[in-house]
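Q: Here's a chain of 254 amino acids. Please give me its 3D structure as tokens.
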Amino acid sequence: MQFLRYLLLFCVSLYMHSLSYAQDDNKNFRNFQLSCSRVSQSFNTCDDTLKKYFEKRGISYPPKDIFLRAFKSQNEMELWARNDDTTQYRLIKTYHICALSGILGPKRWEGDRQVPEGFYFIDEFNPKSDYYLSLLINYPNYSDSMLGGNTKLGGNIYIHGGCVTIGCMPMTNEIIQELYVVCLNARLNGENNIPVHIYPTRFTKPGMNFLNREYGRDTEKQKFWVALKESYDYFEKYHKILPVMYTEDGKYAN
């Protein structure tokens, strides 16, 4: 009995220590980000405007739960948000992606100039980017690693400022200011893994007709897009995100 009491005290102590460490880590992250001039300037420029966007849609600001959804054919990136995980996401704003390289389809090797397609999250905030500010996505994910085979997959895929790319999603400096601030606010508010879903196109009837017309003979891409479409359709119907799951061989399993 005494042993169990000591074990319980140890577990509580360990939990409190980890909680304190997480709080300190979050504070250090916040202080570092805001100490960078581009980030602090972006906050001063964009924070009030972003608050108005969110208030207009009935979403609390700073946000606790946001989601980015990009469409390569349309050169668009959508910002969605919700107040908690029991409610539906609401569209806050649609941004223009100012340039894209490659063609439709997933990224499969380094140097293919492709923008990835699939389900990712923001992995890093870079306040001192060569492209003003940048948000790293976690390419390659498990699916990319498995389906890419033995090739060198590449990496360093960012949402960033400027308007040049060889596989990233450039948004211009003005737009990346807004996206960086809203994502940073969500991160500081507890959302450690901000989802980023990247699609070849909207899977509407015109979009599907386009893919069938232009890529109908590419069976690998067609199979890949079927899996993406399941998550797209679910979100369109419920405005909620399916959990990302994979088969053992790296295919998306929804």
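Q: Can you summarize the key feature?
A: The longest strand covers residues 118-129.
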